[in-house]
From TrEMBL:
Gene3D superfamilies: MFS general substrate transporter like domains. This is Transporter. The lineage of its organism: Bacteria, Bacillati, Actinomycetota, Actinomycetes, Kitasatosporales. It comes from the Bacteria. Keywords: Membrane, Transmembrane, Transmembrane helix. It comes from Streptomyces spinoverrucosus. The keyword Transmembrane applies. GO terms for molecular function: transmembrane transporter activity. The keyword Transmembrane helix applies.
Length: 404
């Protein structure tokens, strides 16, 4: 990697939270973000337990993912036009009611189609990570070093919540009752969103309406979103293949620990990355970050092929996760640069949508490879997806300069 860092900043994270209101909105952000890793696991447990069909459970959650891809950018556009508090609270309430409707449909044995409709309603959940990043961008305007630290913190928070969310959901559903994960997730989402939106002093003002083109038409955005799509395929394939690998070893429950180690590696690397003082543009750093991710992803492939041991796979996954956060932080920085100011939430939500689409595709491809090839060959899918992301980044993303 080129010398993009000249040293460590003194206590950069402490400096972030000296701004008034940042601690309060961050607390709300974390509370509301935790359920993002809970809902799909809780829905699968509920539906499979009530209807006895994992196929139905998978179809319902896939429908929710498709609905999110369609609705989330629209919700983000409304937030850009009318402000976070005015849109996020009613949108969150609608999503929580969708989760409650799913519980009631299962409890009263409603027809299967009602499950799809109820879970699709949860797609109105605002992109809390995007709104939080928008607040940091507003507060830290003109301070790129501090904004880099804030983006790194947000990525570490993503990793932490998606690491803890499924564990909490599984615990609640298994210890109490199948609906407990969805109920607690809904309460956390509403509580966190209300706390987050109550911090009006840090809310970015609504940008004046302009005739700015859609973020999709901004220079370099289509290729950047394509790189996010390929990166999402890395995550989706890695999850499915790791579960299959652990299952093949007779320790399926260990899959959660293994995936947690990967997320922990990414979280730690993200926090460290945020302390670096960067000197090169994000467009130049992104190919190097993706190249590092592709290189480290060969470690799980080698561990699975050479040893077929969970003990060898565990440290390989921990190391493999360490290039994920720097890649995502750098990619999100480019999204912010290349999105018009009055469409910022929409641009970041499009990036998340591309990731979700890649996760869905990577899961399907990883599952197909495991079923028709071998479990160890499945670890080649994330490597190939990272290679595709690298080709896109080198060929197209780097070629376009960010918006001023």
């Amino acid at each position: 990697m080129p010398q993009s860092a000249t040293g460590l900043q003194p206590n950069p994270y402490r400096r972030l939270f000296t701004h008034p209101g940042t601690r309060a909105f961050t607390l709300g952000n974390l509370i509301a973000r935790l359920p993002m890793g809970m809902f799909s696991v809780s829905a699968v447990v509920m539906i499979a337990g009530s209807r006895g069909s994992y196929a139905l459970a998978g179809a319902v959650t896939a429908t929710g993912l498709a609905a999110t891809a369609l609705i989330a950018p629209w919700v983000a556009r409304l937030i850009d036009r009318h402000g976070q508090a005015r849109v996020a609270v009613p949108a969150t309430l609608c999503a929580a009611l969708g989760g409650l409707a799913l519980i009631l449909c299962l409890h009263y044995d409603a027809p299967d189609w009602t499950l799809f409709a109820a879970y699709a309603a949860t797609a109105t959940t605002p992109n809390i990570g995007g709104m939080s990043r928008a607040r940091w961008a507003h507060l830290l305007k003109g301070d790129p070093d501090a904004l880099h630290t804030a983006n790194s913190f947000e990525q570490a928070a993503d990793e932490l919540c998606f690491m803890l969310g499924p564990v909490l959901a599984a615990f609640l559903c298994g210890t109490f009752f199948p609906e407990a994960g969805t109920l607690v997730g809904g309460v956390l989402l509403l509580t966190g969103m209300l706390l987050f939106t109550a911090q009006r002093v840090t809310e970015p003002p609504v940008a004046p309406r302009t005739k700015a083109r859609s973020p999709l038409r901004s220079p370099g955005m289509p290729s950047l979103l394509a790189a996010f799509l390929a990166t999402g395929a890395v995550f989706g394939a890695m999850e499915v293949v790791t579960i299959a690998f652990a299952d093949a070893q007779g320790h399926r429950t260990a899959a959660g620990v293994l995936l947690g180690l990967q997320a922990a590696g990414s979280c730690a690397a993200g926090l460290l990355f945020g302390t670096l003082k960067l000197t090169t543009p994000a467009a130049h750093r992104l190919p190097w970050c993706i190249a590092a991710m592709a290189a480290l992803l060969t470690l799980p492939l080698l561990a699975a092929t050479a040893t077929s041991s969970l003990f060898a796979l565990a440290p390989a996954l921990l190391l493999a996760g360490m290039a994920t956060a720097p890649t995502m932080v750098t990619g999100m920085a480019l999204i912010q640069h290349r999105t018009p100011a009055d469409r910022l939430n929409e641009g970041m939500t499009l990036a998340v949508t591309a990731l979700l689409g890649g996760i869905a595709g990577g899961s399907a491809l990883g599952g197909w490879t495991v079923e028709h090839g071998s479990v160890t060959a499945g670890y080649g899918v994330p490597v190939a997806a990272a290679g595709a992301a690298l080709l896109i980044a080198v060929g197209r993303v780097r070629a376009v300069e960010p918006l001023p």
